[in-house]
From TrEMBL:
Keyword Amino-acid biosynthesis: no
Name of protein: Putative membrane protein YdfK
Matches recorded under InterPro entries: DUF554
Keywords, in A-Z order: Membrane, Transmembrane, Transmembrane helix
Pfam families: DUF554
Transmembrane segments: 6-25, 32-49, 55-75, 96-119, 139-169, 181-200
Record organism: Andreesenia angusta
Keyword check for 4Fe-4S: no
Length: 225
């Protein structure tokens, strides 16, 4: 869990730095930086999608996963949870807190590095990927916090729980996480990262959290294959 703890700490530290220098960062700077992050998210997402060996698996996973998520109203429930926590920080405002919490949680949890890094930690006991991710997330947290507020810091909890679960699962089911499965999980995650990029750029409002069940698609596919 060393790498996971380092990742959580990096986000918290990044948030603290972001809050400290928040007033020194002009809105125009934040807008430009966020636009850059949105473009980076799009590129990362597309690169991850290209990892797929069977695009149909990704398409079917996203379609049915999104349907399940929409029926379950996952996005609404996560935002409600964020708003509830945000009510404890009135200076930030509920909406700002929820947006920071949800957006950061999704960006930090969905992606190849979160999955691969956690699997590496669980299977090999090494943490090189998560250490690299920690540095990236820490820097990103500074930028996000300057625009989205302290809610970004609480995403560290989501990251720790999510990656921790994968680490424990990988340790128990190491042989199940084959390279083909990881490739398809990466591809599905890539599609969601593209959606996150579109949200950051404010080109389209997409309820990315409702797509989370799609990550089960590749797992089910390889279980019945």
């Amino acid at each position: 869990m060393t790498g996971n703890i380092a990742n959580m700490a990096a986000i918290i530290i990044g948030t603290a730095v972001g809050m400290l220098f928040k007033k020194l960062i002009k809105p125009s700077y934040s807008e430009t930086i966020m636009a850059g992050m949105g473009i980076v998210a799009l590129v990362m997402g597309i690169m991850n999608v290209m990892e797929t060996q069977n695009l149909l698996v990704s398409v079917v996973s996203i379609v049915f996963g999104s349907f399940v998520g929409e029926v379950a109203q996952i996005d609404k429930k996560i935002e409600s949870f964020g708003s509830y926590i945000g009510s404890k920080f009135q200076s930030e405002g509920e909406n700002s807190f929820a947006k920071g919490f949800v957006s950061a949680s999704l960006i930090y949890c969905i992606g190849a590095m979160a999955i691969l890094g956690s699997i590496e930690s669980g299977l090999k006991g090494t943490h090189s990927i998560l250490y690299t991710k920690s540095v990236m997330d820490g820097v990103t947290a500074i930028v996000f916090t300057s625009t989205l507020g302290i809610g970004v810091g609480f995403s560290a909890i989501s990251v720790f729980v999510y990656q921790g679960a994968i680490i424990l699962l990988a340790g128990q089911l190491g042989s199940f996480f084959t390279e083909p499965l990881i490739a398809e999980l990466t591809a599905v995650g890539g599609i969601m990262i593209v959606a996150i990029g579109l949200n950051i750029l404010e080109l389209k409002k997409i309820k990315v959290a409702n797509m989370l069940p799609a990550l089960l698609g590749p797992v089910i596919y390889f279980m019945v294959k």
